[in-house]
Design a protein that fits this description.
The chain is α/β, with parallel strands linked by helices. It has two domains: 224 residues, 3-Layer(aba) Sandwich (Rossmann fold); 232 residues, P-loop containing nucleotide triphosphate hydrolases (Rossmann fold, 3-Layer(aba) Sandwich). The strands form two sheets. A five-stranded parallel sheet has the order 2-3-1-4-5, sandwiched between helices. The protein has a five-stranded parallel sheet with strand order 7-8-6-9-10, sandwiched between helices.
Length: 488
């Protein structure tokens, strides 16, 4: 692909100067348009070391209002980032609606460098390639414009530039050992880059090759392509994305109406099992920390089903330094202005730690669906997007446990009434709880569809029969212990 690329003839210096004036003005005008239309724009600057990415980036952003863009220099992952999923450090940096994010370096550099230096086997490389294609597609499907530039120079031009940089004490720091290695292995790098570029050249996020031999010409190419890409994206705002067929193996799950809810434990059984299981979970917590295994636990369920009490018995067994509970409410404005999964990516644990979500990303296909907070196309796409998200966690090595806490309608009414009539419990009941209860049948249909479409082999749903809270708490502890032991 890169090898077969035919460079456009470079215009005269005079024409470049004239077109640059126009392009800079137009890019500035487009910044106001993307702000007004709430279009988030992610710009990727990748390419050969010494090809001038940083210089062109500096020229491009001079034309923009600095309040509405961020630049990210993405070199090697930090020690903290190495303990997160592969896409973590990229997903948490995506822009808010109406803003630019410029990435100097990206997932391409991280992946191809690992391949060239032998730090990643072929299976892992291709798994990450698939992750990248999904990532770029889900950004596009959720309203992002992703513009990817590869800055290309010849081997001799790169060698000359690196030498010039090294000979100046003020710029020698910019030349890394990797840049020199890249030049001395230019053909080998070209083969790997070519394979990567072809694999990730998607309709939703195509690659643009920039002839970087002349710096002003490179700036003009980038600026004009950015303007054109923004114009196209602005025209496409509001168009529905394709709802993709699920490709992940699913487990057959019962409908909520089929679940037996008369399961119960005596007080003696509960006390004995609670003590034994909490002791066992405490031992496992030490093991997963030592073996650096992350654990992600998501709780969903009916209002008053007992999620809080369930979580409390689970965390009572854990070292407080190694877990965090995330109560998920309505998204804050800065969260609403990004991909709906962004706020969950930000809350993922480090390896060896546990994250417990009290409500989760499944709000997309329940409350957001039923209350009209997203379009039908949005929640229909979300089943596959969530399966992909959880596959990233599975590939990372995480234990994934998803609980639906089930009660019947009469039990919920009894608990609502108790809360309303008990002063110290009244904070637990709201008008919204009563409104949601009126939509019980609609929610039940949505939950049945959610469980059916997202109970995968690697992230199945577990139903906690919670008419008897003691039974549900013991089952949750047993389930978490079993899933961790499987991983160990």
């Amino acid at each position: 692909m890169l090898k077969d690329w035919i460079k456009a003839d470079r215009p005269s210096d005079e024409e470049i100067a004239e077109r640059l004036k126009t392009a800079r003005f137009e890019l500035n005008a487009r910044q106001m348009a993307i702000k007004e239309k709430k279009l988030p724009v992610l710009v990727i600057m990748d390419g050969w070391g010494g090809a001038g990415k940083g210089g062109v980036l500096g020229k491009v952003i001079k034309n923009l209002d600095p309040r509405f863009y961020k630049t990210e220099t993405l070199g090697k992952p930090s020690e903290d980032e190495k303990r997160r999923p592969f896409l973590y450090r990229y997903f948490v940096r995506i822009p808010e609606a109406g803003q630019f994010s410029f990435f100097d370096g990206s997932w391409m550099d991280e992946l191809t460098r690992a391949r060239l230096q032998g730090d990643m086997d072929k299976e892992q490389y291709h798994r990450h390639l698939t992750s990248i294609k999904r990532f770029e597609r889900t950004l596009s499907d959720n309203g992002y414009l992703c513009v990817k530039f590869f800055f290309h120079i010849s081997k001799n031009e790169q060698k000359k530039r690196l030498k010039e940089l090294e000979e100046d004490k003020d710029t020698s720091w910019r030349v890394e050992k990797w840049d020199r290695w890249q030049n001395s292995h230019y053909d080998e790098c070209m083969d790997v880059y070519d394979e990567y570029l072809e694999a990730t050249n998607q309709f939703v996020a195509p690659w643009y090759f920039i002839d970087s031999k002349n710096r002003k010409w490179a700036e003009l190419q980038v600026t004009e392509l950015l303007v054109r890409s923004i114009d196209t994206a602005l025209k496409n705002i509001g168009h529905s994305a394709t709802v993709l067929q699920n490709t992940f193996p699913l487990k057959r799950m019962p409908a909520l109406s089929e679940i037996e809810l008369d399961l119960a434990l005596s007080d003696e059984e509960y006390a004995r099992e609670l003590k034994d299981l909490q002791e066992r979970l405490a031992e496992l917590h030490n093991k997963i920390y030592r073996k650096k295994i992350p654990v992600v636990i998501a709780y969903e369920g009916w209002d008053a089903a007992g999620k809080g009490g369930n979580i409390k018995r689970l965390t009572a067994a854990l070292d407080p330094r190694g877990f965090e509970v995330h109560p998920i409410a309505s998204p804050e404005p800065h969260e609403k202005n990004r991909h709906y999964l962004w706020r969950f990516w930000k809350r993922l644990p480090k390896d060896g730690h546990i994250a417990i979500f009290d409500r989760s990303w499944y709000g997309r296909v329940m409350v957001e669906r039923l209350e009209g907070f997203c379009s039908e196309n949005d929640w229909q796409r979300a089943y596959n997007e969530i399966n992909e998200f959880e596959k990233e966690l599975d590939d990372w090595g995480a234990v994934i446990v998803k609980f639906w806490v089930q009660i019947d309608k009469d039990t919920q009414l009894a608990r609502f009434t108790d809360r309303q009539n008990t002063p110290e419990k009244q904070w637990k009941i709201t008008d919204e709880d009563w409104r949601n209860r009126e939509k019980w049948d609609l929610y039940e249909d949505a939950v049945d569809e959610m469980i059916k479409k997202t109970s995968t082999d690697y992230a199945p749903w577990f139903i906690l029969e919670s008419n008897d809270k003691h039974y549900a708490r013991i089952k949750a502890l047993r389930t978490v212990i079993e899933e961790i032991e499987k991983k160990l």
